[in-house]
Amino acid sequence: MSSGSASALECTPINGVEVSEGLNWYAVRTRSRHEKLVERQLQGQGIEGFCPILSQIRQWSDRRKLVESPLFPGYAFVRIAPSPEERVRVLRTLGVVELVGCHGQGIPIAPEQIEAVRVLIASKMPFTKEGFLKVGQRVRVRGGSLDGVEGILVAQNGTRNLVISVDPIQRSLSVRIEGYEVEPL
After folding, report:
1. pTM here?
2. How many CA atoms lie within 13 A of 116 on its CB side?
3. 30-76 tens-digit pLDDT
4. What is the 3-state secondary structure (H, E, C) of the chain?
5. Beta carbons of 9 and 98 less than 8 angstroms apart
């Protein structure tokens, strides 16, 4: 993972994502262990929030337990109009520290990136967290449970993986795609 701060990004649209007049996805940095609370608070205000959750079985010396934790600790996502009023509503939400981006404005996230994370979580396929990648070929999966998901194709130790990146928070996920057909974008 990147050791740099996600809020130290340049003030330019990333991967051609432009601010639209409609609703855009943004990342918000949250207080420690407040990710799910932020999502609930936003939804209570009628704002669409998304906090991807990872369920894992944890082993202690005396028991095993299914534990749910945020996929991206310290971050949640919000879908709002690009207006100062909406940003203020989000920033006043309990647990929200800042919008990820320049000068508190937030950087819009391509809806395809959020959808790719949703599809990967719903697929229940095993994946690993990856360091943020800027290089490599962008591809789209054809067929199977990941049909239409776009990401960066990488090869590690002879296996093919698809890396799905969320640009503004500089976080990525990797899923093994051996046997899947991919096409370049």
Report:
1. 0.72
2. 24
3. 999 999 999 999 999 999 999 999 888 889 899 999 999 999 999 99
4. CCCCCHHHCCCCCCCCCCCCCCCEEEEEEECCCCHHHHHHHHHHCCCEEECCEEEEEEECCCCEEEEEEECCCCEEEEEECCCHHHHHHHHCCCCEEEECCCCCCCCCECHHHHHHHHHHHHHCCCEEEECCCCCCEEEEEECCCCCCCEEEEEEECCEEEEEEEEHHHCEEEEEECCCCEEEEC
5. no
Show which of 109, 128, 144 is a domain's final residue: 109
Q: Which residues are CB-neighbours of 61 under 8 A, at least 6 positions away?
A: none
Indicate if 119 and 105 belong to the same structural domain. no
